């Protein structure tokens, strides 16, 4: 026993007593042979105690270490258990200014386990009363089946969820789901595409970026501008209505970056109501459809002729007689009985003249340049619906002549706009994109024609608008006055006859206009195509591009330019006139 | 017999266990609080998401355009409505002199049916800032001309009451000087007789011009013009 002051047990565990009072005389003295054995036992005990002390000490040190010193390093288990990150949602898609084009909302879907239901018929009746778009017989059939999991209705509104919950039917449960919402409706239908009921992308951006949208939470920013998209869609709709057409397509492209600011294909569909979609409305005319572009190709034809050096700008061609080759006869819409130079051929859109220019440079040059302009292979674009061109094979002498005025080689509007962007912007070609490019990002560039040829083509395209086939759309009305402010649009009309059977249908047309503005330093390319327009009173029965597509482009540019920050200039300003003069 | 030391140890143990339990309950409480906060954050996030979708839906350009046509007389800016800064005459030396007429004298034509309004949407990229130095003659200044009385569709008054046409209201007495700042324009707004229905900049402009048949820029980009006026003084 011990009387040590802080001994809990009364025993001298630590042996303090012994240290304090050195043992001179043991209290108990054994004077027998067992003494030695006892001493030995005591020393063994000491060793064991030391070992235990060491082990306990180590545990103590470790405890202090984990609890006191390593506090931050240890995982905050309580926090991680509750502060779960939000359930993985499909990323948003926005336009270039951050306007939402597609987003995901959490919704509840009701399902049932019929085995837990007390009265199946009563439950079905109550459910149908609450969710009127359900069919009673169908619900009852589902509930009476053998399955233990039956969807009642997916993606309920919060109100419906509350109502169903209030019914208090045992066996009805909710599952949190995600529902894709397209706030802009059909405005970007072909572009964004849509998702299926399980949120998997089925079309457009939703399909091609399916993985990206699932994995990264940051919104996907497109190059599209909703405002321009709206203007484009509105004006093409207007043209389709006015001319009783069957469809149309339109593009606005930033010349300097290749970004598509607008891409419209009509008729379109409501991505929120995919049930109403049909083959016609599903078809993307802007990217998937390939068409003979008609006279719009004369931009490329003239560029090839000038760039290859085989034709000089002031060279004249005999356009007074139709050109016969094989079973074809090439003739002009407005025949003239004199020789025309390149500018006149371009301005009046002479097929004969264009074909004669093509004759001078020949098949090989034409094919090579068409390849450079990206007309011989499918363009790269970020949606799956991209059509490849219909390239003539073999490339006959007839093909040479027809391609000169845009027949015999079918390309998509995307290809047309991209190549025209290259022609007007100093001859540098950039691939089209639907994603917003970061400022300063590396844009792949290829030179297709020289800056000189590009400058000439700009002047020729302006000439079409001031004095040529586009003049009706851009030169009349309130714009007549000499000091009128103008966005200096330049472009080319194109009216192609649609293929029907083995030949061309004279009355079934496709009118298009491809233009750029401002022509002094082009920044945007606008393309509009109207499928099968019919002449009306206002157009004096004409359904050609100058009456159908060009006015639409004019309306689009006049509304879009202020949004794009393009300043109007006085049309007859001497500086402008000089810059656009053909010399 | 229990010694003094025993008592002390027992006390210590009781206190320690008390502190331990207290801490443990606190932690539980905080955990519950934390998870409820997390749930709340989750809910708020969802509502934000819903509201953003709603906002985008309500900002649908087609809808905005319809509303703009119905409720305001503002139309898309036309090229003819823009004036080069050089074309705006300097303020005359004598302040009592007549109002200088702006250069392009073509009155705003009646808006053709084929040109309905564009959406006045949030426009972060639209760059109509007339901010270049006044010395540059080519600079454009946005000058919103007051629409003609004929084109100014009357602002609809609610409840089937006859709409207050700009003609019906008295023409506002315009100050001798041209209204050259937003502030001055606002002041003239206050001075105007109350117009039934919504008062918009355009409708005030229309009533202002009702008296003087000629269309004039009533609102000129503030900074550049006052800079120009300042330079003229």
TrEMBL record, chain A:
Residues of the Penicillin-binding protein dimerisation domain:
89-214
Instruction: Please name the GO terms that the record assigns under molecular function.
Output: carboxypeptidase activity; penicillin binding
One example of a Gene Ontology biological process annotation: cell wall organization
Q: Where in the cell is it found?
A: Membrane
Give the UniProt keywords, A-Z.
Carboxypeptidase, Cell cycle, Cell division, Hydrolase, Membrane, Protease
What are the GO cellular component annotations?
A: plasma membrane
Q: Give the highest taxon in the source lineage.
A: Bacteria
Write down the InterPro entries for this protein, in alphabetical order. Answer: Beta-lactam/transpept (IPR050515), Beta-lactam/transpept-like (IPR012338), PBP_dimer (IPR005311), PBP_dimer_sf (IPR036138), PCN-bd_Tpept (IPR001460)
Question: Penicillin-binding protein transpeptidase domain: from which residue to which, for each copy?
Answer: 249-539
Query: Would the keyword Nucleotide-binding turn up in this protein's UniProt record?
Result: no
- Name of the featured protein: Cell division protein FtsI (Penicillin-binding protein 3)
Q: Which organism was this protein described from?
A: Nitrospirillum iridis
TrEMBL record, chain B:
Q: What residue spans carry the Pro residues bias annotation? A: 101-110
Q: Which domain of life, per UniProt?
A: Bacteria
Which keywords are on file for this protein? Coiled coil
Kindly list any coiled-coil regions of this protein.
27-54
Positions of the UniProt region annotated as Disordered: 94-127, 152-174
For bias type Low complexity, the affected ranges are 111-120, 152-169
- Record protein name field: Cell division protein FtsL
UniProt source species: Nitrospirillum iridis
């Amino acid at each position: 026993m011990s009387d040590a002051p802080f001994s809990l047990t009364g025993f001298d565990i630590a042996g303090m007593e012994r240290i304090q009072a050195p043992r001179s005389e043991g209290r108990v003295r054994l004077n027998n042979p067992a003494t030695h054995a006892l001493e030995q036992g005591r020393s063994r005990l000491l060793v064991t105690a030391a070992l235990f002390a060491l082990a306990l000490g180590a545990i103590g040190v470790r405890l202090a270490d984990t609890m006191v010193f390593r506090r931050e390093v240890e995982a905050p288990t309580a926090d991680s258990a509750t502060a779960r990150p939000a359930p993985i949602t499909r990323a948003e898609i926005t336009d270039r200014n951050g306007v939402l084009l597609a987003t995901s909302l959490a919704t509840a879907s009701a399902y049932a386990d019929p085995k837990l239901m007390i009265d199946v018929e009563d439950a079905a009746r109550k459910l149908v009363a609450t969710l009127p778009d359900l069919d009673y017989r169908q619900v009852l059939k589902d509930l009476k089946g053998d399955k233990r999991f039956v969807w009642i209705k997916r993606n309920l509104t919060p109100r419906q969820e509350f109502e169903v919950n209030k019914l208090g039917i045992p066996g009805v449960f909710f599952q949190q789901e995600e529902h894709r919402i397209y706030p802009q409706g059909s405005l970007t239908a072909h572009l964004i595409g849509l998702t299926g009921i399980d949120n998997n992308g089925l079309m457009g951006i939703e399909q091609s970026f399916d993985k990206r949208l699932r994995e990264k939470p940051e919104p996907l920013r497109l190059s599209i501008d909703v405002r321009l998209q709206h203007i484009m869609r509105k004006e093409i709709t207007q043209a389709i209505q006015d001319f009783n057409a069957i469809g149309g397509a339109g593009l606005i492209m930033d010349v300097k970056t290749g970004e598509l600011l607008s891409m419209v294909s009509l008729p379109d569909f409501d991505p929120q109501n995919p049930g109403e979609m049909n083959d016609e409305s599903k078809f993307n005319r802007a990217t998937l459809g390939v068409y003979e572009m008609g006279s719009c190709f004369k931009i490329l034809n003239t560029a090839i002729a000038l760039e290859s050096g085989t034709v000089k700008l002031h060279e004249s061609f005999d356009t007074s007689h139709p050109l016969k080759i094989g079973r074809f006869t090439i003739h002009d819409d407005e025949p003239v009985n004199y020789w025309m130079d390149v500018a006149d051929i371009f301005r009046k859109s002479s097929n004969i003249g264009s074909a004669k220019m093509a004759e001078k440079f020949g098949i090989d040059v034409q094919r090579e340049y068409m390849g450079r302009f990206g007309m011989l292979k499918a363009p790269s674009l970020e949606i799956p619906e991209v059509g490849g061109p219909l390239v003539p094979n073999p490339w006959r002498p007839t093909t040479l002549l027809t391609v000169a005025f845009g027949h015999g080689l079918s390309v998509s509007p995307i290809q047309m706009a991209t190549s025209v962007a290259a022609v007007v912007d100093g001859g540098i070609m950039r691939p089209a994109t639907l994603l917003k490019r970061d400022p300063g990002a590396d844009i792949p560039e290829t030179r297709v024609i020289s800056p000189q040829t590009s400058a000439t083509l700009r002047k020729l395209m302006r000439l079409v608008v001031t004095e040529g086939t586009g003049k009706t759309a851009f030169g009349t009305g309130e714009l007549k006055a000499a000091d009128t402010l103008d966005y200096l649009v330049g472009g080319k009309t194109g009216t192609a006859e649609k293929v029907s059977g083995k030949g061309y249908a004279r009355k079934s047309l496709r009118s298009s206009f491809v233009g750029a503005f401002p022509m002094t330093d082009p920044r945007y390319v606008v393309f509009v195509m109207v499928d099968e327009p019919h002449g009306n009173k206002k157009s004096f029965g004409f359904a050609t591009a100058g009456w159908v597509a060009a006015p639409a482009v004019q309306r689009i540019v006049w509304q879009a330019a202020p949004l794009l920050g393009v300043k109007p200039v006085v049309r007859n300003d001497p500086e402008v006139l000089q810059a656009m003069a053909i010399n | 017999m229990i010694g003094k030391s025993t008592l002390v140890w027992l006390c210590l143990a009781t206190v320690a266990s008390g502190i331990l339990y207290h801490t443990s309950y606190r932690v539980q409480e905080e955990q519950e609080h934390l998870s409820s906060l997390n749930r709340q954050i989750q809910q708020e996030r969802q509502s934000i998401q819903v509201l953003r979708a709603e906002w985008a839906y309500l900002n649908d350009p087609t809808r905005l355009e319809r509303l703009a046509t119905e409720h305001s007389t503002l139309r898309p800016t036309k090229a003819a409505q823009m004036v080069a800064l050089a074309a705006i005459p300097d303020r005359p030396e004598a302040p009592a002199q007549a109002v200088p007429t702006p250069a392009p004298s073509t009155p705003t034509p009646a808006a053709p049916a084929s040109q309905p309004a564009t959406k006045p949407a949030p426009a972060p990229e639209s760059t109509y800032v007339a901010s270049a130095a006044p010395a540059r003659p080519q600079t454009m200044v946005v000058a919103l001309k007051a629409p003609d009385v004929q084109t100014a569709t009357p602002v609809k008054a609610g409840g089937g009451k006859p709409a207050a046409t700009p003609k019906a209201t008295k023409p506002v007495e315009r100050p001798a000087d041209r209204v050259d700042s937003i502030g001055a324009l606002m002041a003239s707004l206050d001075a105007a007789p109350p117009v039934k229905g919504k008062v918009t900049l355009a409708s005030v402009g229309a009533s202002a011009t009702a008296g003087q048949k000629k269309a004039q820029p009533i609102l000129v980009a503030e900074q550049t013009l006052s800079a120009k006026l300042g330079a003229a003084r």
